[in-house]
Amino acid sequence: MSTSDETRFSHPAENEQALSGEDIAPGDERLDGTGVAQGARGYIIGLLLAAGLTAASFLFVHSDLIWAPSIPTLLIVLAISQMGVHLVFFLHITTGPDNTNNVLALAFGVLIVFLIIAGSLWIMANLNSHMPSMNQVMDMQR
Question: Could you tell me if 57 and 77 are in contact, meaning their C-beta atoms sit under 8 angstroms apart?
Answer without folding.
Answer: no
